[in-house]
């Protein structure tokens, strides 16, 4: 894929997993793009300077965004409003402003009022991540084959959206646009409620005194392991996700507990047919995901068996 | 690792994922071991003959176990009692009888009464599996670095247990012994309840009409994907697991819903501190699992990013 970069200068505000991965991915594709960065923590700024994925790490957000034609807000959702107010006077004319927050309506509500008329605000959300945090966690292929959702409000310049789409495509991801409220509901189902459920299961295991922690850990290959991976996600990010996507999350959790009680009752009453029918139905959804290319059917996810003791 | 095989002739009753993987693993380690097999379905017997991981596939369980010094019951737990009654008269003197069921007390209750005094019954459970079923699903490395739990009752000949342990070690797994009831509780925490929860989450997504099925599937890399993989497990096996490990599973599910309501309430009330503290605590359990060697910390589980569109 040839062609010049859609942006000259990208400013990353927040330098965690997502921002650092964006930097690595952009540099791999378009080494000529200038990348500046800022993070609130001095330690993070210094680590980023050591790693070197920014051309310059500034000591203020205002300095980092000066002259940038794309500004990426990659901080916890709860910090976005204040940040937007701080940088607004320093955004270049015609700059594109985006974010990578996991909830969209709350970001629009917090950031929107501060966006100058000469700036194009295109909120976004890359559906990618690992359990690790911080500038050292980033890598260039994080977004390969992943979805990056955009939720611009009506009236935003389509050319600005296209430039952002081109950048995202250059990082290997696929884009889709949708209304912010719809995004938040879909993510409540596919991500937010599952995360809370995973956190809860790990918490239950943690409390159980009759089952030792070492057993829970040792024998966790049996299904629990997947939950713990989800439950190791960044606590600050997830606190903000649940607080800002509250209604949709509570909706899904309510449905979940209703569903769980039906199955629990079937178990208590020994209704094997009910269980078998239910489990058969859920297998079909799994097949759909493999077909959609969002996972692999290779045994053990294609991992080679580990050889250590 | 040199040394002769701990068994001369292994009979596999049931020819699904676990049995076929055992055959592949045993053959890789000790090609001289005779392996006979039987499955209730003629189609399965024929598929197994095609694949060729048994020296002979018989048309009855009795024929398959004749002369075997190890007999493995690899059928759904609900079928084990009847099977045990059927093969009991045909078991060789001094044969070791084992199973691979995910629940131990129910297997002991169903099978135990049929075991002749000259046969050594050592119930077992390999903590390994994939979402696939059937004879074609098996592969030799399934048990590499996994735990295989044994729950022999008191008085079983230690030499018989050791022979089985040697076979398991030859297939790459680690063994541990415990009391059957304790096994069932530990597995309720690490496997059974998590599976039911995963099934439930997938079921909720399935019902939701405001969110199209394609979106749930498309955007499922965000956490939901892990649930669907768990929820694609064999429906028959899991029906029997829940029906036979009922008390322990209901215990854990009850604790789970109590815990979930606490978090749900924190979300409704905007208690960010509670959420942050809880999520921070669960991260520690994840670290413990990586250290115990039961998973990898490599980004994206060490999977190379997929390149398809």
UniProtKB/TrEMBL annotation, chains A, B:
Source superkingdom: Bacteria
UniProt xrefs under InterPro entries = 6-PGluconate_DH-like_C_sf (IPR008927), NAD(P)-bd_dom_sf (IPR036291), PDH_C (IPR046825), PDH_N (IPR046826), Preph/Arog_dehydrog (IPR050812), Prephen_DH (IPR003099)
| SUPFAM superfamilies in the record | 6-phosphogluconate dehydrogenase C-terminal domain-like, NAD(P)-binding Rossmann-fold domains
**EC?**
1.3.1.12
Where would I find the Prephenate/arogenate dehydrogenase domain in this sequence?
8-297
The pathway this protein participates in, as annotated, is: Amino-acid biosynthesis; L-tyrosine biosynthesis; (4-hydroxyphenyl)pyruvate from prephenate (NAD(+) route): step 1/1
Q: Which GO terms describe its biological process?
A: tyrosine biosynthetic process
Keywords, A to Z? Amino-acid biosynthesis, Aromatic amino acid biosynthesis, NAD, Oxidoreductase, Tyrosine biosynthesis
Q: Which Pfam families match?
A: PDH_C, PDH_N
* Main EC class the enzyme belongs to: oxidoreductase
Catalytic activity reported? prephenate + NAD(+) = 3-(4-hydroxyphenyl)pyruvate + CO2 + NADH
The entry assigns this protein to a family as follows: Belongs to the prephenate/arogenate dehydrogenase family.
Q: Which PANTHER family match?
A: PREPHENATE DEHYDROGENASE, PREPHENATE DEHYDROGENASE [NADP(+)]
Protein name, per record: prephenate dehydrogenase
